[in-house]
Design a protein that fits this description.
51% helix; four-stranded mixed beta sheet; 216 residues; Conserved hypothetical protein from pyrococcus furiosus pfu- 392566-001, ParB domain; alpha+beta; 10 helices
Length: 216
């Protein structure tokens, strides 16, 4: 039986994930390798950005993509940390592209990578495995403001929101459904309503449930 041919790029990447070099490695990535990485090593990342993929794939299709200082990044556990838009564009255009690849990055640094492309609180919550991350981030923000200063409009930092999700507001998730249900009826912001239902329940759980039922 003929064995499937493993692309050279995939072999190079697998070897360097297993034994990370101290410097970047220049690799010509083919669509098969890009698809393999995207499906097998992209767990927990935020979704690709369609506009970026369209733009990048158009450039790749007409051979306008050159070797820049931008890198594809892998963590010590082999997870893809940066580069999914370029990899998706490679698959879409069915064209190889050459790039620097960096291996052996501490996964803890994921949340502070790419300062020019900051991950917002919803991104960080999604990466951490929380469901309905956008609604959860908004609900936590509103609950925190209600507990501290309702007139404060300062944006909460992603790592701070993640800490609140794991500790102070670890019990707010069940109220996300309330917020979504009321949002469907009245178009009120789901995160804000979730936070209000959460706060009401802390004062009087029975009255809070009756209010939710009457609205939903």
């Amino acid at each position: 039986m003929t064995q499937p041919v493993i692309p050279t790029a995939l072999s190079i990447i697998e070897q360097n994930i297993a034994s990370p070099p101290k410097t970047s490695v220049i690799v010509e990535i083919d669509p098969i390798t890009a698809e393999n990485i995207s499906s097998m090593r992209n767990n927990g990342n935020r979704p690709p950005k369609p506009n970026k993929v369209q733009q990048f794939s158009a450039d790749m299709s007409v051979n306008k993509w050159g070797l820049t200082g931008d890198t594809i990044k892998f963590a010590t556990d082999g997870r893809l940390l940066d580069g999914q838009n370029r990899l998706s564009s490679c698959v879409r255009s069915n064209k190889n592209f050459t790039t620097h690849v960096v291996f052996g990055i501490d996964p803890v640094l994921f949340g502070i990578m790419d300062i020019g492309k900051p991950r917002n609180p919803a991104d960080i919550l999604h990466i951490a495995g929380f469901k309905y991350a956008s609604n959860l981030a908004a609900a936590i923000r509103w609950a925190y403001l209600l507990d501290t200063d309702p007139y404060n409009r300062e944006t909460l930092q992603p790592d701070f929101v993640l800490g609140l999700a794991n500790k102070e507001y670890a019990d707010i998730e069940p109220f996300l459904k309330d917020g979504r249900d009321i949002n469907r009826q009245f178009a009120h912001p789901a995160g804000q309503i979730s936070a209000l239902c959460y706060k009401f329940s802390k004062s009087d759980e029975k009255k809070s449930k009756r209010l939710y039922q009457s609205l939903a």
